[in-house]
Amino acid sequence: MPSSTALLAFALVSLGMVLTPGPNMIYLISRSITQGRVAGLISLGGVALGFVFYMLCAAFGITALLFAIPYAYDALRLAGAAYLLYLAWQAVKPNGRSPFEVRKLAIDSPRKLFTMGFVTNLLNPKIAMLYLALLPQFIDPAQGSVFAQSIVLGFTQIAISLSVNAMIALAAGSIASFLGKRPAWLMLQRWLMGTVLAGLALRMAFEARKT
User: Taking the domains of the chain in order of start, what are their residue ranges?
Assistant: First the structure.
């Protein structure tokens, strides 16, 4: 089992990551606004399966492989930083859009909703970075089984992410309506989002490789 300190620290990191908009949040909000809350929650089920996939990959040793090959780790870290900077620019650029601005999507079947949620999460660089680069930093072999620690940390992240995303999906319409009637709040939300994403990107880009 991970130490209580490591577990709490990783929980805070997971909370910070889920609160910074990315492909999952944008898709879930757009789907909930376009097709309703139930559709958003079905899509969230697919997202959850994507989390489980990444957790098992990390637990079964892909993380160890990346750390054994310095260039692979550095390439992933820099790619993740570049992607976060791209998201930051998308947020603050002129005529940029908030994830809470309505995006009309086609009406999909429950099966497609679940599949698209899974694929969106599977192709989400932010989640890949969380599991393949950040999670290993909270694992201490002295605390016992590395596999067990990976599973515990992974389920902690999944529980936090699903809880937050479910609340966002359920309240997406109300939040979008609130921000739509208050342009100043919408601009503030975009700049706050961009600043947080840029800060994460710079920290990731200049972070020394863990040995």
Answer: 4-206
